Request: fold
Amino acid sequence: SDIEETELSKIIDETITSNPKAVEDYKTGKENAIMFLVGQVMRKFPQKVDASKIKASLLAKLR
Reply:
């Protein structure tokens, strides 16, 4: 749903902001840092969300 998308986007933004080290690691080529961020988002998001969807959203925001 749209509400879910908006909420997910907000949580992803917060996760990126509050985990600068993981973001930096990812940007310097450490691929596994993205999975750490996915885990952080999944922990904060109440509904069950597909990890690949979260990963795709994270990657889009980190470009």
Observations:
- Residues 5 and 30 are 27 Å apart (CA to CA).
- The mean pLDDT is 94.
